[in-house]
Amino acid sequence: MSYGNRPNTSTSNEAPKDYEVPHGPSDSVSEVSFSPTADFFTVSSWDTSVRIYEANSTTGAAIGKAIYNHEKPVLCCAWSKDGTKVISGGADNAGRCFDITSQQVGQIAVHEQPIKCIKYIENHNLVLTGSWDKTLKYWDMRSATPVLTVNLPERCYALDFTYPVLVVGCAERHVQIYDLSKNPSTPIKSLISPLKWQTRCISTFLNRSGYSSMGNVEGRDCTGYAIGSIEGRVGIQYFEEKDSQSSFSFKCHRENNHVHAVNAISFHPVYGTFSTAGSDGTFNFWDKDSKQRLKGFSSIGGPITSTTFNNNGSIFAYALSYDWSKGFVTQPQKSAVYLHTVKDDDVKPKPPKKR
Amino acid sequence: MGKKKNKKVVRPWCWYCERDFEDEKVLIQHQKAKHFKCPHCNKKLNTAGGMVVHVAQVHKETIDTVPNALKGRESTDVEIFGMEGIPQADMIAHMHALETDQPTKKIKTEEPMELSSEEIKKQLAQHQAMMQNNSTTGQPFSYSGYSTPQQNMPSLMPHQYSQFYQRPGVNSAQTYPYRPNQIPGQSLPIPGQPWRPSVSGVNQSLYGQIQPATTGQSAIYPSRSANSVASASQIYPQVPHAAVSGMSPSGQHSYTPYTGASSANTTMTQYQETSPTTTVPSVGDAMTTNETTNMSQSITQQTAQKSVPKVVLVYSDNEVSMEEKRAELEKYRYNEDQFRQQVHALDISVQSRVANLKGRVV
């Protein structure tokens, strides 16, 4: 399945002319994450730092607010639901927490291998970490021992959740789906990725009404997930048996015969459309329901390693930095985070186009 | 491919590639997908002119040929939409082709076959000459790449050989499980019946080559019964394989011919291995099989090369992620033991210095 047809309004890929966040990290960006409450965002980097910025949504500019460090590269970062704490995990096998108000850093998690993914689960006030040591661990941020340790079939590569559904993507294409409200220790589904290549990123999505009822928990229902692989392909998968025939996958981030990895998938918090970004340095906005590409942008000159929307979907932040897709290079390109002011028309779902 | 049901009713056909369709709607769909698609963004335009304007305005580039079109019909100046705009001369030529029951498409399918039959005849002549030569000189016959021991061959050869070609496949059929020279209809697969792909690669070309020499029957037979890629390439030689393979999941389809070729090869070697004790008729058998296998192999390899869109995964390690590799780098690596060792070494050096100092003080 490919998005061959494209609306007439966006036949070409325009070059994104976006604002570059000043004082960026000196090495590759591993993750960009927006606060759920305000236009603050964190940038975690291979230079061992986690930087916290404030974005001004009217001017589109950003200023640095704080910085803290791990001992080794930081691989992931996230915010607590109330926007007062930043959590991060890194190659020093440690999870750390930074309190915005007190400006204090503390260690909250430890694994035997680097922590690849970190999420804050507000419903239980727990931090979830996923590591290459093939475990998930839940931490309550006060105790040195995890509340719960869950064994995974393989190294954890990507995870995302929309309470109560947690989807974990592991090496060897394993995908584990958990119901956090019932039993977080055993998966409700354990399957192999619909894509034929290594899982790169996972993002859960809600049902249609879940997006229109912004902030209203009632009717918000996590119906499926999008999964991206190193082979320029994205799969849209639904959980329910009845929806399973609407699951599909499509190709993207390919130029001529070079197939790039899909590095990031982010869903728009209001419209439920989503972005994909890849090693080819392009990002696109898609509508999974009408199976259309809404907007494409030309390459920014280097891989995009992470993307995120802010809480109301007006700002799209993406990180330009080398993602190691070509192994060690002597002169990696610069690392920078850009803020893209989202045009409503670019992310609004469109009615399916008649062929 | 029912062409000529009624002379008055002409199936809509595409001027660019001489393909005909059930319906004009399908034809237009085909033209949009095959001939009027923008090579830069895959947007489907309605006409060649529309594509030119689109490419010029949007991508700032010029395009002067229609993709996937036959030679001489690549011009973008001819405004074709479905059946509209086809030059009168070509229309007449097409009608004429239909009336004389020589659809252009059919000719195309036959082309490779005719070539190969001619070739086989030539090879046969050569072979016969060589055989006679061998028998007169009494030299053991040898053929490059062919290693079956030939004990009593020199004397038997010419006779057996001619017998073999006069009564094809009657004797040899009993000794060999694999009988390329048999007349179609005796025990070989019926067209339309699915063949095992591993064998079909060999059989297909064998048919095309040996039939004209033996029976001289319909040359289209192999291409109809053949498996996927080879036949597709013969029926639509002008359609680039990238376009065909684009429809199937990338990579997968392109491997089919390759395995076909390689397994044909293995069949071949197995065949040779089982035949060393046998006498001369097998030589003729194995010979032709050998040649034709090589040819079919080269054909399938060619198609394989053509149809592989040479997709390159920029990052292709399916087992280990980019980040894991990167974290292995000295600069990024976290190794507690190393830290402990460093600390320990520091401790020891400090202690020894302290001890030294103490010694001096005392």
UniProtKB/TrEMBL annotation, chain A:
The keyword Manganese does not apply. Keywords: Repeat, WD repeat. WD repeats lie at residues 67-108, 108-149, 255-296. Residues 1-30 are annotated as: Disordered. Residues 1-14 have a biased composition (Polar residues). This is WD40 repeat-like protein. It comes from Glomus cerebriforme.
Automatic annotation (TrEMBL), chain B:
PROSITE patterns: ZF_BED, ZINC_FINGER_C2H2_1. InterPro entries: Znf_BED, Znf_C2H2_sf, Znf_C2H2_type. It is found in: Nucleus. GO terms for cellular component: nucleus. One of its GO terms (molecular function) is zinc ion binding. Keywords: Metal-binding, Nucleus, Zinc, Zinc-finger. SUPFAM superfamilies: beta-beta-alpha zinc fingers. Residues 7-66 form the BED-type domain. Gene3D superfamilies: Classic Zinc Finger. This is BED-type domain-containing protein.
